[in-house]
Structures are given as C-alpha cells and as structure tokens.
Amino acid sequence: MGVEGIGASVVRKEDKRFITGKGRYVDDIKLQGMTYAHFIRSPHAHARVRGIDASAALKMPGVVAVLNGKQIVDDKVGNLICGWAITSKDGSPMKMGAWPAMAPETVRFVGQAVAVVIAESKNLARDAAEAVVVDYEELPAVANVAASIKSGAPQLHPEAPGNQVYDWVIGDENAVNGAFAKAANVVKLDLTNNRLAPNAMEPRSAIADYDAAEEHFTLYTTSQNPHVARLVLSAFYNIAPEHKLRVIAPDVGGGFGSKIYIYPEEMVALWASKRVGRPVKWTGDRTEAFLTDAHGRDHVTHAEMAFDKDNKILGLRVKTYANFGAYMSLFSSSVPTYLYATLLSGQYNIPAIHAEVIGVYTNTTPVDAYRGAGRPEASYLVERMMETAARQLKVDPAELRRRNFITQFPHQTPVIMAYDTGDFHASLDAAMKAIDYAGFAARKAKAKSEGKLRGIGLSCYIEACGIAPSKAVGSLGAGVGLWESAEVRVNPVGTIEILTGSHSHGQGHETTFCQLVADRLGVPISQVSIVHGDTDKVQFGMGTYGSRSAAVGLTAILKAMEKMEAKAKKIAAHALEASEADIVIENGEFKVTGTDKSIALPMVALAAYTAHNLPDGMEPGLKESAFYDPTNFTFPAGAYICEIEVDPSTGKTNFVNFVAADDFGRLINPMIVEGQVHGGLAQGIGQALLEHAVYDANGQPVTASFMDYTMPRADDLPSFKLSHTTTLCPGNPLGIKGCGEAGAIGASAAVINAITDAIGKNNLEMPATPDRVWRTIHAA
Amino acid sequence: MYETNYHRASSVDEAAALFAKGKEAKYLAGGHTLIPVMKQRLAGPSDVIDLARIKELVGIEVAGDTVTVKAATPHYDVAASDAVRKAIPALSSLASQIGDPAVRHRGTIGGSLANNDPAADYPAAAMALGATIKTNKRSIAADDFFKGLFSTALQDGEIITAVSFPVPAKAGYAKFPHPASRFALTGVFVAKAKSGDVRVAVTGASQSGVMRSAAIEAALKANWAASAVDGVSVSSSGLLSDIHGSSDYRANLIKVMAQRAVTAAG
Lengths: 780, 266
What we know:
The structure holds two protein chains of two kinds. Chain A is of the alpha+beta class. Chain A has 20 helices and 28 strands. In chain B, strand 6 and strand 7 form a beta hairpin. Chain B is globular and about 55 Å long.
C-alpha cells in the first residue's frame, strides 16, 4: 500500500488551505460590476399575494431592480421539479402543485420568496426591501401531518386533494397478514421521526454572471453536484442550453444533502443577471438557511412486528406519513419510499414486509434528503422495534437480534434490496466487547445506588449506499442515472490530474482520491491533483451524496486509471523492447519483470506527448476517461451501543460510553473515515437528544436561529470508541461500501434505546430533551 | 444593519453628553444583545456610544465586606479574579458559567444588568446578594432595579458605573443551561447574609424576569440545608413555558437548582 496508498491515514491535503483561511468559497468571489440580491420573503405560512408595490424602493439610491414572481413566470423560467416519479397504490402518478422560483400568487411557507431587490450593495438591497409593500391575504395553514390529513383541513395545492402527494405501498400485504395470523406475539410501536434543519457551516450562496455577447451564463454556487445543477437548470428551468451555462462549485462548506438541490435563489440570480445585465450575488444568512434549506426526516409511523414462539420474526407491517412541506423538492419523493421502505428489513430475516407511505403537504419548509435520507428513519424504526420487542418478549435485546440476523449472503429481502455481504454477528460482538456489555448490570446497580438511572441501548443498522445501477433506479422512477465519470490526465512531465464528477465539500477527496493513484503507481500524492466542481473542466458527473463518492466515484477513477495504465504499459514495453505482458508498475516506474530494465513514469508520459517513438498506430497523449455504473447498492452495516445515565431530578442525559463497530468494506484513509463517523454520530445523537425544527400550529417556525435550534456542541457528545469489522463489498473492485452517513443512520436508536432502558419506560419521542425525559419519568 | 454613528467615549461624562446629543442613541458595552438585534435590523440606533473602553468603568475592588465590580468589567475578569473567588466564590462561579469563552471576554456586568434579559445570570446574583447598582446619577438597590422583562429602573441616558456586592456568609449558584442558547433555562442563586438574612433569586424561569422565591427563602432561613427545600412547593404559575422547558419543568428546576446551589454554598 505504501505510506500514501490505500489504507494509510494520510493527513488531508486540503486542510492547509482551510485552516489557514485560504479556502475559496462562493461568497469570497467578487466580480466586476457585481450587484447584490436580497429576497423579500413571506412572513406568513399561507397567504395570497394581492399585490407588490415596489415604486418607493425603485426610487431609492443604489437600487438596480425589484423583480417579482409574476415576472419570472412571464419570462417562462420553469417551475422547480421533483426528479423521482412515484406511483400511488391505485396506479396514479404523484400529485404535485407548481413551485415557481418566486411566488406569483400564493405563498405556502414562511420564508418563501415573493420578490427580489437587486442593488449596488447588500445593505442597500435590504434597505430597499423594507420599502417594498407586499399586500398579503392570510389563509389558514396546516403545520404538521395530523393537521394536514384531517378532513376539512386547509388545502395547499388544488392538484393534490386532501394535501396528499401519494399513497405508495411496497411488499406483499397478503403474506404479511398471513404472518400476523400465525404469530405467537405481536409488538406494536408508534413513533415520530423529528424534523431536522441541516445547518451546513457555510450558508448557501450564488453568483450569476451573464455574458450578453456570448449569451453565456456562469453560475458560482454552493452545490454538491454542479453537473446535475447545470442539467436541471438547462433542461427544466429554461435558463440556457448546457453549452451556454457553466456551473462552478468551488470550496463548499458542508452540505449533508441540503446542497444537492437547485434552489429558487440560484434560478432567480441567473434570470436576474440577464435582466439587469450585471452579475448578481446572493448569500443567505443563517435565518434564511433555517427557512429555506431543505429540511430532513419528519415521519409519523405506526409499525407492528409479528414473532413466532421462538422469537423469530415472521412479518413487519408499517404505515408512515411523510411530511414533505409545502412543495416537492428535487429528490424528496424518493426519500420516504425507495430510500426508506426498502431498508425496513434491517439486519434481520423478515419473511414478509408490507409498508404504506403517505406523503403529505404542509405549510412548512420543503423536506428532502438530509444525511442518511430515509435510511435513518428506517433504521430508527427497526431498531426501536427490536428493543421494544425484547422488552415485551422479555429477552435480552442482543440475543433477540442475534436470533434473527441474516447470516447467508447474498440475501434477498422482501423489499427490493439484495444484500451482497456482511457479518452482523461480528460487528455486534465487537461492539458488545468494546462496551463490556456483560458488566452492564453491575454498573447499573452501582449507578442506582448513587441516585442515577443508567441504561444501555443497541442499534444494529444497515444502510444502502452508492444508489445504483442506473437501469434499476430508472425503473423505479429516478429521473437521472446514478453512475460516475472520471478522467485521468497524465501531463507530459508525469504529474497527474484526476478529474472527477464527485464533489468534495468536506469529505477529503483531494486526499483519498490521490491515495488510489499513489497506491497503483507508487508516486507520492503531491504529484497528483484532483479537479472537480466545474462543469467546464469535468465533462459530467452526478456529484456527492448518499456516501457514493468512494464506492462509485473512486471506482470510476480506477477504471480510467486501468485504461491509462494499459496504454502506458504499451509505451513502456515499446521503449524497453519488452513484451507488454511483462511490464509491472512499481514506485513510479514501469519495469520489465524479472529484469533490471525500467522506465520512469515521467519518461513514459513524455514519450506519449512527444510521440517520437510510439508503437505503430498509437495515438499520442496519455489521458483516459471512464464512466462507471455499479451493479448494486453497497450495504454498510454495523452495531452501535450507547451507555448513558439519566439524572432523574432534571431529566438530563449524560453519556457514559458510546461504541461503534462499523463494516464499511475497504477503508482508503482510516483517519478520514473516523472523522466521517464522528460527524455522523454527532448528527445522529443530535437528532436523538437535541435537534428539532419546530413549527407552531399556524406554521410559524419556532426554531429559526441557534438560540432555539439546538445544534450539537462538542460538550454534548461523548468520546467515541470506534472499530471496524470488514467484509469487502463484492460489487466494486475496491471492495468499498461507503461511510458518510452511517453514524447519522445508526446512532439515534442506540441513544433512545439506552434512555428508555434507563427510565424503564418505552415511549419517548426524539429529541429526548431533559424536559421530555423528566416528564416521562414522572408521568403516572 | 442600519447605518449608525459609532462613538468611543473616553469618560462617563463624555458618554452621557454624547447620548444626550443623539436622536436615538444606545450605549454599547459587550454588545452581545445590541449587535445581534442591530444586525437583524430589529434596532436602528442613530448613535452607538461604546462604554467598554472607558478606563474608569473597568476593574474589581474588594474592600472590607464589599466586592465592587465596575460596569464594563468583562465576565472573564470576574471569573478569573482571585479576590472575587476568595470573597464571593459563588459570584466567580456564576461569571465562569456565562456563555462561552468568547462571550466572557467581551460581555460585561453592566451590560448584562442594564439589559435585564430574563435568562441572564448576573441579575440572580445581584438580587440574591442584595447588590447596589451604582450609576452616574445615583445608587439603586437590586430590589428596586429590576422591573420585569428587559426593563430596569434606569432612566434614559443613565449609565451603570459599578455594582457593589456585600460579602455574604454563604452563597451558591446553580444553573441548568438552556440546551440551545446556554442562557439559564433556570438558574438559582442562594445567599445567606452575614446578618443571617436569606435571599434566593431565580433567573430564566419567570415570565417577569429575575424573581425572589419567598417560599425557598423561608425554608432555608429555618434550616440552611438542601433537604430543607424538599418540602417546598413551587408553583408553575407565571413561569415561562417553551419547547425547551414547560412551566412545570421550570418549577421543578427551581427546587432542584436551589438545592444544588445550597450544596455548592456549603
């Protein structure tokens, strides 16, 4: 592997620029003649826009334009799309209302833009925005699932009667009914998966620059997938054809899914830039992030699990209401369906599963994929269910899980997924050993003598990453393929540039991707650079989300490397007068195996570009590309165990220990993997204990700042004990499964299982705030 | 932020004169409330008069039975002061629990009291210790100073110059932090004066800002022990209720924090 190859904890190349303040984010970019946009946003959750009077604002100094929703519709800028078609159980397509980039007529959530001021400075734009008078007619609003599905509830979109987007089912209902009919025990569970606000460190930002002479747009934006942004802006929003639109996503400060989507602000900036003939910049503030970045989760679920007399699972029945907010965001429809219900088998042999998912509109911020996206909701349900069942059936929770683990692979679940490999016993054993599970009873007794309630909670999660193959996701309704592309350019002096369609916004690609090259060629990573985030540089790509960059993106790089190496070997063999089959690559040299003859990579590269002495018929140059479409999802899995102590007098939960045993397949850079797990665990624990995006009954956000929305801080979290058990993924040549979301997927159930164990009451919603825990302890 | 005129006053008199000249002037100390509300355009003062660099407003003096903290002294200085720790360890402890290190190096005692945020820590200390708030015009007893949410006895343009705390026989502060803001969800300061008088002040819990708890005071006066609070009934009426703490929960916290404060006081 070498010191910088696969498996080495190489220090991140990109950190020097980040920690010395030299990163280049969208808001750092200033263009000649740039103007600044400030959006005028609805203060109402639901209202009709009767009129917008901008006459006073237009007279103010420095104001370039005030544009509104009617104008953007008149200019035929397309409505926002939802890119995954879901079919209801009655065969009808999902029912969606239109989402214009600015509301021409009706606003449906607090924060939805109705107009934009373009001015010479941000402050002048804000001054002018206060002088714009919007005449709203308030309408009744619905803020949650229960209110939305009530008969006679206020309706959001005429296209979606009853506020229902779809009523979708998966699995064999008859088989599940049969399973329950013969069950010895049935366990029932109601739970809510709380709504979260993603809160990337860098707020969203966009700069649009229209070149009238070339009829060409450049968009600098905070995107996880700049090529998808260009595709959608071109194909659906009528901004410009693809060759007339360049999208650049430079350094991006976190995404967690929230920067997958093409948001109204980017569309408006592009459209406005052409209208005013100058570059337009918009940078959101934290309040705008809370109001307009796509939220995550927000499910209400009833589930039932059937067991036989030996505590083997017979069947699982699930009914979930998913709150989509006021509009269908880009991939929202897939999250509570194909990313959620397909994981309901967890790590267990479940012969029959049936799930019904009803997607509803409410007057709240749109909901879409957020770190884990559907899989945290599934894992939380399954692992809360297993814990509840263990309590009801009076068996040890680890034993109940073990009894039902899948042990034969491949394993076809009743809900589409075919697990390729795994070793669930190994990860649970590792976690139990790490936390001294056997010694827990003694620790609990000791804590009790000190007036504390101690609990332990398990969570054996499985997830699906690198969502693929394209043909399969296409058949399920996806509007895009989910492959990845890469290009390897060996320069004439032997340095290497890797162009990738994956996008790094914190993941460390500039290091890990170089490590693959170092591993294969034996060159130092300083000789390799990663190029990404610019549609003019990289031909195409699907971007970074769903823990796909290593499993899919890096494999595409591998495929391109293999092609490049094959050509380079031909050149080397020709130069060394040897057989191509005898050439091996070691330490940056092409060697004739079994001899001392070799030629260094730079000389091979130079030969490729001088083309003075290439094999007959060979094209000059050393540059290869590849597209890689995986054959299956990958299935990271693991076991998390959390030990906590609750202070009964305040309801405060304190961590005693948190152990994680993950199976991610092959690790490229264990240090970066560790960082990814830490971040994921922080978000999973955050969901369990702290985070909640709350609306009041009228749809007013209650948590639109860090004064009310509890972001996890370092001192809210324990020191994590991480370990790995490894089964290599057979689906890709590197054996990689992906690690980006596991922590966020597996942690929440472990925490809630531990708290409910401590307090001896099973019903406890997230976030388990001290107030809520105290109330639960002392409830009659 | 709206445009404003920034003034850096070099003396209290100059600050007061600048204030009088301004149309809608505001004093700036640590700025932890004023700056955010200005950035959100919820406040738009014509003039901002910075008090934080006025030399006569910074410093701590311990003389006899009195600890005097000048108004623009940052929380960090109070927390780090050996003299304060010796005289009133509870005050030192309270200061060390305000916000985070950045906040403690910038925020000031005068700013905290003048703002009278219902969840701020210092009002509890001032009330329980029976502090005297000194201004450029007069001295005000803590009991007369706090007038409800964000409201005080300060007149327009009046500047707090120092706060004097009588050194108690015993005092303790216990705070349950708000999970998001880290202000006090409920904080209780208990003090037993050298005269034997007991005062208990609660912050974070009440709809009308810092308040005394007569019931807990009576119980502790009878028996200065955490267990003395066991039998006290704290009503949730008039207490704040929000997503982080219902009024019932805050009523419970008042008792629990009072007990912990007594334990801390020794």
